[in-house]
Amino acid sequence: MLSHTLILEIGIAVGLVAIVGLIANKLRFSVIPFFIIIGMVLGQHAPRIGMVDLTFTESKPFIDFMGRLGVLFLLFYLGLEFSVNRLIKSGKAIVTGGTIYVLLNFTSGLLIGWLMDMPFKEMMVLCGIMTSSSTAIVAKVLTDLKRTANPETEVIMGMIMFDDLFIAMHISFLSGLILTGSSSFWTVAGTSLLALGFILAFLVLGRKLVPAIDRLLKEKTSELFILIIFALLFIVAGFSETIHVAEAIGALMAGLVLADSQYIKKIEAMVLPYKDFFGAMFFFSFGLSIDIMSLGGAVLWASIAALVTVMGNLASGYFASKFSGMKPKTSFDIGFTLSARGEFSIIMANIGKAGALLPVIQSFVVVYVLILSIVSPLLTKESRNLWKLLFGSDPNTAKPLKKLSDLENKI
């Protein structure tokens, strides 16, 4: 029987998420760590105040379901904005830089997993956690710092697109490795190939259905329009789960197909509020699932992993700037910006949780994401000052001529 305070508890949860979001915006920080922290603080050790249980025991299944919807909307919206054609047109520099970025971060995951003596499945999840940059944080940082028009921003977004493509493939591999519950190599390989086949087939066949979908959407009321879009999203995501492909991949595929629709702008505008709301509840529900007292054992390794991630991303930023023909100092802009970790790292950890892997994965990702979601924007903001501090001013930069003698010498 449902508690009579259920709606009140959910209302309080949403209100608290909104309050910490306002605080984050006031401090000009990413909202993601704030959403996670408020969930942890109000999780398993929160007090009961009158009728309201701040552990949200009664409402937690509903909050968890809203978080699950958050994953679907986050990946669906990413698919709507993703363009394989644009990635191809971005050029060799982005593909090369993106490849180096993925290799360095994936190798870092292997190294940390080996040092932590993790089993193979946990190590593969850890590699995904350490390879997946946060598109949401990166986009917000670039907007807040007014760098969206900078030349290095095109490289950054191109590398993120390349990374997202890799993460989609890695999630399909993890689906076969973890979600099937099988230890047989052939079963895992078969499920992974099935996931890959599903992705490719859906992209090929789905895009041929876009004209039919557009006819279905033509001149529909906003109510029918959103119902049709949501029906497609949930059916595709739900079907993918039945064949042991992560539902998040199904949501991503649905977005990729609809990205070719002539109604793409209208779809994005309608989906955006749902993505923002349920995305916030996703981070909050993740925080609720974490026992804050269990994080101590993961602090050291997560801190080392965060440092390794920043150093590896600086290296990938160096190669990306070199191949793009940009100045070396842009490597700091690229590397620090790409170091942000957030939604996709948590999605990877949740796959591990669904597969009943070691709980250290959950503790690790909390500390790791909190560190990099806070430190990365700060380092990005100060990237040029840090470059100047370490390497001095760019000798090719023209200095202002203030004296008459300077002007005469220049002539």
Description:
The structure is a single chain. By secondary structure, the protein is mainly alpha-helical. A hairpin with a 2-residue loop joins strand 1 (48-49) and strand 2 (52-53). Helix content is 76%, strand content 1%. It has one domain: Na+/H+ antiporter like fold (Up-down Bundle). Helix 16 runs antiparallel to helix 17. It contains 19 helices and two strands. It is a multi-pass membrane protein. Keywords: Membrane, Transmembrane, Transmembrane helix, Transport. Its main location: membrane.
List the helices and strands and how they pair.
Elements: H1 6-27, H2 31-41, E1 48-49, E2 52-53, H3 60-81, H4 84-89, H5 92-115, H6 120-131, H7 135-144, H8 151-179, H9 185-208, H10 210-217, H11 222-242, H12 247-258, H13 264-288, H14 296-323, H15 330-338, H16 343-354, H17 360-381, H18 383-391, H19 404-410
Antiparallel strand pairs: 1-2
Task: Let me know the average pLDDT.
Answer: 82
Q: Helical residue percent? A: over 70%
Global morphology: globular
* Rg on CA atoms, Å: 23 Å
What is the fold named in CATH at topology level? Na+/H+ antiporter like fold
CATH class value: Mainly Alpha
CATH architecture call = Up-down Bundle
Unreliable segments of 5+ consecutive residues:
397-404
Number of domains: 1
N-to-C SSE series? HHEEHHHHHHHHHHHHHHHHH
Question: What is the number of helical segments per DSSP (H or I, 4+ residues)?
Answer: 19
Strand order of the largest sheet: 1-2
The first-to-last residue Cα distance is 87 Å
